Amino acid sequence: MKRIEAVRLDCRQVKAADIPALFRKNGVAYHRIDTVDWPSDYPYCPDVKFAIAHKGDCLLLHYKVEEDCVRAVSGADLGPVWEDSCCEFFCCPDTEGGYYNLETNCIGTVLLCNGKGRENRTPASHGTLADIDRWTSLGREPFGTRDGRQAWELALAVPVSAFFRHTLKNLSGQTVRANFYKCGDKTRQPHFLSWNPISLPAPDFHCPEFFGEVTFL
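User: That's the sequence. What structure does it adopt?
Assistant: Structure tokens below.
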């Protein structure tokens, strides 16, 4: 099982657009999402890195992606963002309250739900979603598919209140089970990559038994 330590950055309000520079300034480490769990059916492996940090009451994420094309059709939150070029963070703060799937396509459209399995998941309210600040190098407007080698970045500032079935106040000292994914179900080259490996016969990210660990320092 893979493990990450997420450093605390002592700063005030952080906008998502400022996260890449903030991470560079503080030397925040990047990790690869490069496990091709189903190579016989989905061998394509774009170049994907992510970094994670926090400031106590807010989770900070930054993804860097290079792939052979990008798709950005879903423009409304809670839509099918996984069909687009999409980066995902699944996490389980404890064993009782289920796990969250925070899925964001390359134009910053978010899907956030909670539940104990794939079915009957509870979506976040629109007010909760509005509190998640997003920045992407591709802008926020849908554009369909762009072919050819593409490089893009995505940053998210996620307040702890976004984890709406928990009462998290401060991430410092917390350890959560988590996994990071890159997918694109309806891109030219469908792919399903994970940070921590998944040992299942077919693509399925809703599998907390294969989560790794993130410890927030």
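The chain has a mean pLDDT of 97.
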